[in-house]
Amino acid sequence: MSWEEFLWHMDHRLGMYVGRPRYDRAWSALTGFALARGQGELTAFQEWMSARHRGSSLAFSSLVLAETFGDGATEDRLASDADQVLAVSKLCQLFREFLKQHARTP
After folding, report:
1. Which of 76 and 40 is assigned the larger pLDDT?
2. What pLDDT score does 79 carry?
3. Ramachandran class of 96: left when φ > 0, alpha when ψ lies in -120 to 50, beta otherwise
């Protein structure tokens, strides 16, 4: 399975694989897929997200939430199903953006 196919399923059919679609479950699925591939994408994504948020002490999973909902956003503040869906979609969007930039880097 390619990254694009995986991200499409995660963005559109996450609940089919993990039950109730939640950001933490999407993050776990992304982590597991990246580790199974064993090509270092997760580490590179972490570095890419940290570079986008210079000076932030947030974990890179929290940086996705900060880009989605603003500074101070945490998983505890995802109050509705719509918030969860938005956070998962943003995670997929950012990872796609990272993959495009990563592919262009020699």
Report:
1. 40
2. 81
3. alpha
In angstroms, the CA 74 to CA 40 distance is 26
The dihedral sign for the CA sequence 77, 66, 14, 37: negative
DSSP for 27-96, please give it: HHHHHHHHHHHTSSHHHHHHHHHHHHTTT--S-HHHHHHHHHH-TT--GGG--SHHHHHHHHHHHHHHHH
Q: How confident is the model at residue 71 (pLDDT cuts 50, 70, 90)?
A: confident
Q: How many CB atoms lie within 10 A of CB 60?
A: 18
Tokens representing 101? 């930039």
User: Six-digit token pair at 34?
Assistant: 């990246």
